[in-house]
Amino acid sequence: PADKRIYALRDVTGTVESLPLITASIMSKKIAEGAANLVIDLKIGSGAFIKDMKNAKKLAKLLKTTGENLGQKVKVIFTNMNAPLGNYVGNSLEVLETIEFLKGKMPADVEQITKALAIQMLNLTGIEQNRNKAEKMITEVITNHKALNFFKNFIETQGGDPAVCDDTSLLPQAKYELNIKSPATGYIKNIDSQAIGYALVDLNAGRKTLESKIDHSTGAYLPYKIGDKLQKDEKLGTVFANNKKTGKAVAAKLAKCYQLSAEPIAKQPIILGES
């Protein structure tokens, strides 16, 4: 509860990217929980707090030193956040995608990162050192829905309704779905993930001030990644909004977040390294 208030304050005072405060926020909760082993997904890129590998390594060192000084085993995985992870951006929309993932509908980037983190955790805890066997264990708990049932338990323990896992229409739903059109023909060269986040604040998917109320139903569906080809005016994605006029304005902003090239662009790696 205290960290939630402190983070809300950081959110509106320009201190979200402070490395010491990030370290304090992450590690205080993990230490309080009594976690003996910790695998951290440290995102780098335009959509992350950390923009480059130099600062990522500084933060990783702070996180590892803090944990190890208090008896924790800590592993940091560096992952690419130059494009939104998965296909959805927004509060209930990302919960929806999580539920779909646990039912076996897995976007390639989410699957790669999730399995990489889970394999490291199985290794760190000594449960399974062999990578192939660890990955097989992860696939099995998704296929047999054990992971989904654990997620239902998490929701119920925190006072939520686990029925959303069986009927996702129970999640907050926006009134309007508005198309985002590709600004040109070409290959996606760059996605300004930070600008996407700022644009969605106009839909109240994030805070503008400390007192701002979050609209959990709003957000966007953005399935295209760097290297994908688009045609001019092709449907680039969808905005979910409760105000049609604002939704259209956000759709126009989101279209401008995509930089296209006439030449083919190589796909970017998702896993950038580890520490």
Write a concise synopsis of the structure shown.
The protein has 275 residues and is α+β, with helices and mostly antiparallel strands. It is built from 9 helices and 10 strands. The strands form 3 sheets. Strands 3-6-8-4 form a 4-stranded antiparallel β-sheet.
Could you characterize what this model shows?
It contains 9 helices and 10 strands. With 275 residues, the protein is an alpha+beta fold. Among the domains are: 1-81, Up-down Bundle (Transferase, Pyrimidine Nucleoside Phosphorylase, Chain A, domain 3), CATH 1.20.970.50; 174-261, Aldehyde Oxidoreductase, domain 3, CATH 3.90.1170. Strand 1, helix 3 (53-69) and strand 2 (73-80) form a beta-alpha-beta unit. The longest helix has 17 residues, at 53-69. It is globular, with a radius of gyration of 19 Å.
Kindly estimate the percentage of residues that lie in beta strands according to DSSP: 15-25%
Rg for CA atoms:
19 Å
Number of strands: 10
Order of helices and strands: HHEHEEHHHHEEHEEEHEE
Q: How would you write the strand order of the largest sheet?
A: 3-6-8-4
Secondary-structure map:
Blueprint: H1 2-11, H2 19-33, E1 37-44, H3 53-69, E2 73-80, E3 88-90, H4 91-102, H5 108-124, H6 131-143, H7 146-157, E4 176-181, E5 186-191, H8 193-201, E6 219-221, E7 229-230, E8 235-241, H9 244-255, E9 258-261, E10 271-274
Parallel strand pairs: 1-2
Antiparallel strand pairs: 2-10, 3-6, 4-8, 5-7, 5-9, 6-8
